Recover the amino acids of this structure.
């Protein structure tokens, strides 16, 4: 830069205008980010905050974002609701909903349902990996007749909305005698999630150089060993994506669970949570505390696996 | 120990593309065989069939006396170096080199010894702890070589291993690969489209075109006695010159090639081969270097034309030469300087003329 540009007529003006434009741009982006953050975080914040409030405080106007007197009684209620207790009109009418002492009649199902949800989600994740990884490897790296058709077919199954599948699924599950079992959920969730997992993995495997596969096999790997020893370590990010996607999908699934489960033997968290709102009276404090418990496992899973979503794992494989 | 035989081997890809046609080839034990041809001619396909990475569609592929059509790659004792190196990015250099031995369950101290040995030879011993992404192209190439070397395979396959290197490195690596072959005493099959690489490295060269073998022979055979115009054109820099003309046979041991006022007297040996070709339309091939402008050419060995272009190339110069509207290129010494438009007379080395059939392109004399 020479001094000339500084003394040029209009030079300073131009630079100031440019700086202003950049500032304005930053401000717009910042404002957008703030709005988006509030939009995303507000419901969660309210959920967590209200789970530490009494029923009376929750319904107060204006709402308290920070509890005046944080209380753990909602959580205590959840963990003490496990013992059988007869809920009748008498026991219920003695409770004062406003004080937060009220507990829904299905409260004792909450912890078993959480365990069910966890079991189902974990099984779905594991089976997804067991089925999806070899399938994706075959589709991505082995040229066989009908390969492209298979990929499209697998994807097309995901175009059909779940609601259209409910009745056929129900008939199949009923005929298998699996109604009201965890197995029915695992089975149907797999049908819903495997195609997408395979799709994610195929995309990723196809991006890994063919020659890596060839090198591994010439080096003494069978197809399966090439998959395990070379492809899996390199596809960590996509595996994590599959784990997160399938865990969250089964954790949150509602429609199929509503159809196939009737008792606490197989009911999952979303079903039990939803039932709380259809009781005689609604206890917001209790529901919100339950809601907080419901988001804990997915958050833990996400935090554990998120760090493995990294790029650049394949750098250096081919020329470059 | 491995002799590799292709018997009527065909390769058709799943999409119907016929990549290799009726391949018959006998690769001797400890031979250095080079597959040479333009891009897409089926060299890699052939190599991959030896490795077991591509199925043989038809015919028989034999290792010694064993049919290996259906043997998967990990059960064949082959090692391969890929054009893109294909190093395992998640493993260190050490583990990249050791991987093949680990998969074959070699004892740990044996693996260690061989890996360090190979690294020493390839001068990458100081890089053993690095990842492939932290290496230069030439270093990666050495790691890829090392990975194949330590296996001490009975067949060593290389698919254009030098094509990603710069010119200087390529020439020095060429020498190292040749040494490696001498040291390892195994069968090498080497794919390239670089004629210089093929000519320096090979015991025998296989020239391919569109999946069909054109000629198999020693570098000398291929260069001096090409079987057809494709082989003749593929080797040589600048490429061989062709002149279409007619053969005039005088008697059983004398014949001339005639085109306009150019008349070249053919050697006696050539003339005998062409004894029944009087009046035949042929294509004459003259390699760019088979002329001499300083020699006093006798009648029947001189070609005349106007200089069209002069391209100095360090050691000599290429003369572009207008001949009946066609551009011929000759390699001549630098001693004489030429200007565009000059008339020149070059004396042709009659012993090195090539005569091909004009339509089929097949040689008429070798
Ligand atoms: N998987 C495949 N499916 C269909 N056709 C293929 C496949 N692989 C290669 N081909 C075709 O077969 C022909 C030969 O391919 P090949 O890779 O053997 O060529 P090449 O001689 O090694 O060429 P290059 O020098 O470019 O590497 C090419 O025309 C190519 O398009
Ligand atoms: Mg190739």
């Amino acid at each position: 830069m020479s001094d000339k540009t500084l003394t040029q007529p209009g030079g300073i003006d131009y630079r100031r205008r440019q700086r202003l434009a950049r500032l304005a741009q930053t401000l717009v982006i910042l404002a957008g980010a703030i709005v988006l953050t509030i939009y995303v975080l507000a419901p969660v914040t309210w959920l967590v905050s209200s789970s530490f409030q009494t029923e009376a405080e929750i319904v107060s106007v204006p709402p308290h974002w920070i509890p005046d007197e944080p209380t753990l009684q909602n959580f205590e209620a959840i963990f003490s609701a496990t013992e059988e207790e007869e809920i009748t009109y008498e026991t219920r009418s003695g409770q004062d909903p406003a004080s937060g002492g009220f507990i829904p009649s299905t409260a004792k199902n909450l912890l078993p349902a959480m365990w069910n949800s966890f079991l189902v989600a974990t099984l779905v994740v594991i089976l997804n990996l067991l089925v999806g990884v070899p399938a994706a490897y075959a589709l991505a790296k082995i040229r066989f007749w009908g390969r492209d058709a298979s990929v499209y077919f697998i994807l097309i199954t995901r175009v059909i909305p779940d609601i259209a599948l409910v009745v056929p699924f129900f008939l199949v599950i009923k005929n298998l005698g699996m109604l009201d079992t965890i197995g029915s959920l695992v089975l149907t969730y797999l049908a819903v999630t495997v195609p997408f997992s395979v799709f994610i993995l195929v995309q990723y495997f196809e991006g890994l150089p063919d020659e890596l596969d060839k090198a591994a096999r010439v080096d003494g790997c069978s197809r399966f060993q090439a998959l395990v020893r070379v492809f899996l370590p390199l596809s960590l990010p996509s595996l994590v994506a599959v784990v997160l996607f399938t865990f969250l999908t089964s954790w949150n699934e509602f429609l199929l669970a509503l159809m196939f489960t009737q008792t606490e033997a197989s009911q999952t968290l979303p079903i039990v949570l939803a039932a709380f709102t259809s009781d005689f009276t609604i206890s917001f404090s209790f529901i919100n505390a339950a809601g907080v418990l419901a988001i804990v496992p997915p958050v833990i899973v996400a935090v554990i696996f998120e760090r493995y979503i990294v790029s650049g794992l394949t750098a250096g494989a081919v020329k470059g | 120990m491995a002799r590799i035989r292709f018997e009527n081997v065909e390769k058709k890809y799943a999409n119907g593309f016929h990549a290799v046609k009726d391949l018959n080839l006998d690769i001797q034990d400890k031979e250095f065989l080079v597959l040479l041809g333009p891009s897409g001619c089926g060299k890699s396909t052939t190599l991959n069939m030896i490795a077991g990475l591509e199925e043989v569609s038809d015919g028989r592929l034999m290792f010694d006396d064993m049919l290996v059509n259906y043997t998967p790659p990990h059960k064949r004792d082959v090692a391969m170096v890929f054009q893109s190196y294909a190093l395992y990015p998640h493993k260190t250099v050490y583990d990249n080199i050791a991987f093949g031995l680990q998969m074959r369950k070699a004892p740990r101290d044996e693996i260690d010894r061989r890996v360090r040995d190979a690294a020493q030879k390839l001068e990458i011993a100081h890089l053993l702890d690095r990842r492939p992404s932290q290496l230069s192209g030439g270093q990666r190439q050495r790691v890829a070589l090392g990975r194949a070397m330590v296996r001490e395979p009975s067949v060593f396959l290389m698919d254009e291993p030098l094509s990603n290197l710069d010119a200087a490195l390529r020439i020095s690596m060429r020498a190292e690969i040749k040494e490696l072959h001498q040291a390892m005493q195994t069968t090498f099959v080497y794919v390239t489209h670089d004629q210089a690489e093929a000519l320096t490295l090979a015991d025998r060269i296989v020239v391919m075109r569109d999946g069909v073998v054109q000629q198999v022979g020693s570098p000398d055979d291929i260069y001096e006695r090409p079987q057809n115009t494709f082989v003749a054109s593929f080797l040589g820099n600048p490429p061989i010159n062709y002149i279409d003309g007619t053969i005039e046979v005088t008697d059983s041991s004398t014949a001339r090639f005639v085109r306009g006022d150019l008349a070249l007297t053919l050697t006696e040996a050539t003339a005998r081969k062409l004894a029944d070709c009087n009046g035949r339309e042929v294509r004459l091939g003259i390699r760019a270097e088979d002329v001499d402008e300083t020699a006093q050419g006798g009648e029947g060995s001189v070609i005349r034309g106007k200089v069209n272009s002069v391209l100095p190339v360090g050691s000599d110069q290429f003369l572009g030469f207008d001949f009946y509207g066609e551009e011929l290129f000759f390699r001549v010494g630098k001693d004489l300087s030429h200007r565009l438009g000059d008339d020149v007379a070059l004396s042709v080395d009659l012993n090195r003329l090539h005569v091909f059939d004009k339509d089929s392109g097949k040689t008429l004399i070798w």
Observations:
- The first helix of chain B runs from residue 43 to 51.
